[in-house]
Amino acid sequence: MAERRIVTGNYAAAYGALLSRVEVIAAYPITPQTFIVEHVSEFVNDGLLDAEYMPVESEHSAMSACVAATATGVRSYTATSSQGLALMHEVLYVAAGLHLPIVMPVVNRTIAAPIGIWCEHNDTMAERDSGWLQCFVENNQEVLDMVVQAYKVAENTKVLLPVMVNLDAFILSHTVEPVEFPDQKDVDEFLPHYDPKHAYLRSKDPMVVGSFASPEYIQEFRYQTEESTQNAKKVIKQVNDEFAKKFGRDYGGAVEEYRMDDAEVALITLGTVSATARDVVDELRDEGKSVGLVKMRWFRPYPTEIIRDIASRVKALGVYDRAMSFGTGGPNYMDTKSALYGHSTIPVLGFLAGLGGRDVMVKDIKLMFERTLEAAKKERVEKEVTWIGTRGVQP
Amino acid sequence: MAAQALADAAFVEGNYAVAFPWFGAERRGAPVLAFTRVDENKINIKTRVYNPDYIVVLDEKLMDFVNVAEGLSPDGMAILNSPLDPEEVDLGKSVKTATVDATTVALEVLGVPITNSAILGAFASATGLVSIDSVKQGILDIFGPRIGDKLAEKNARAAAAAHGNIKIGKCKAERKYPEAKKWLPTYQEMPLSLATKPMKTDSGLVGPGSSVDNKTGSWRTFTPKYDEEACTNCLMCWFYCPDSAIKRLEPPKKVGFDMDYCKGCGICEEVCPADAIEMVR
């Protein structure tokens, strides 16, 4: 029988590694991810997890060790945040380029300066072109479930790319809520032992991993990554459906639609704001407003076809971002517009809120819906990017 | 950990519960906030709690400069760590109030003035929302993995001891809290890149020298009692004080204590070779 306990997002992230029977862990602590490192090291110390635990001296080393370990053919795990992810930057490209299916929870924390410890997505958004797949979650159950699912997606032979599981700093990492822990036996059936055919270490069957490549080859390597990323779209849905069948929790795949039947407008959200937005949608629906929620779960690969389909059913879209690409808009907003260009003419509005960990309140989300409803009525965009709750800026 | 233990207690009784902290890059003993939400149904909302049904205050000195009951609903209840009767407490708002001398309970049961477990026992008896058995279970579940089962059991005993020791009444509403002034400049007014020069703002000084305005001695539970006669003026205390709260004085005087900044950590007592410092409540 699956057990239910009340735990933090960090514990759920660590327990996901335990259930996935990871074989090598290399990690370096950073607030607010520290408890993940502590929990997995305890699991290893207490004999609950049969893994090699490497306490490394930096995040750069953590990712390097995971790359090397995975290249020998084992399942590896690390976790980080903010400046730690930035320090991994160059090695992230190595992991993706070598098609090593590492899974890494990233506790999304604002990047200095100014130095802060709270939630912002500018750490992972800066790595969105690294070749890693990225998913965002809204509660602790989803943290645990997505670590397990992430390995299944990453290790699929049509994909073979690393995955970041993004959870909001403090809002999940340090928050306790009830989580159901699947039975190990069921997880073992869902996620069999990692047995790679493309990169491993066997003395009688030698290979070179990570060799030099000249311009005659690199473009083809890049296309391999593009193909894997495109393939991931289908695999994400398959893995979601298989998980739903086995464990009874269906997240909808790359995107979850909430109360989208006959919705006139929708708000596309990332992370924990999706959770609060559910309550806001319920409230606005009770007031007779025709609104729905589109929870962006897998931001890489960006679910282009799904978003085009949603746009064909609504009159306007609002897009929420917790990070800014300065001079243009939030990354989620830009990608949404880019997916729709040439396919849809509905107004698309971008909203920035909650940067640096500022609370995204019910009234903030209501304002996003109000503006999107207005744009649907006027059939035009009056303001592309709205900064909500910024002192000195008219929202 | 107390907010989490309370959530766990409610969860043990079949509810959905969420708890989360709110703190800066501070140290142990500094004022922090924590929130707990309980519902029979799944809780989605992820914001902080702005209008609580219950407030719990672990440090009574906070009530002197924080309007702790500001968002409390009029039908709500305050559970306070205080040796006073509810009628003697002034929250600036007349609400149902329970007091418990959690510091004394904690000192008796735990030997240290950490009151978060004791106050949970008081919360259970004052509100009836969760049973004391569930609170004890919550403490074992949450504290156990962090501080060990033995200490967790001690904390569960502290909760049980506080459970029968509460006074319930209504607090006074005489105090007028000054309107909370916080320096919240517009982006235009904010110094570029936060390179801040000494500046007077609505919430006091900011920039270099601002700690002159920002008295941190209010975190203190214990106060150093100094025996000048026993003191050899070796200055170990002056050297070790992490807050530079020990001052060298003009001879023949030896050292003095700056109570605006002393946080009562007791390091001076620990390092004094002449036993000239004793920490007292």
Distance between the termini of chain A: 50 Å
Low-confidence stretches of chain B: none
Q: Topology as H/E string of chain B?
A: HEEEEEHHHHEEEEHEEHE
Going across the biggest sheet of chain A, name each strand in turn. 9-11-10-13-14-15
Q: What gross morphology of chain B would you assign?
A: globular
The greatest inter-chain interface is formed by:
A-B, 29 and 29 residues
Q: Percent range for helical residues of chain A?
A: 40-55%
**Unreliable residue runs of chain A:** none
Which radius of gyration of chain A do the C-alpha atoms yield?
Answer: 21 Å
CATH architectural designation of the largest domain in chain A: 3-Layer(aba) Sandwich
Helical percentage of chain B = 25-40%
Strand tally of chain A:
15
- Name the strands of the widest sheet of chain B in spatial order: 3-4-5-6
Tell me the β content of chain B: 15-25%
What's the main sheet of chain B like? 4 strands, mixed
Estimated radius of gyration of chain B: 21 Å
Number of strands of chain B: 12
Number of helices of chain B: 7
Structural class of chain B: alpha+beta
For this entry, what is the oligomeric state of its chains? heterodimer
CATH topology of the largest domain in chain B: Pyruvate-ferredoxin Oxidoreductase, domain 3
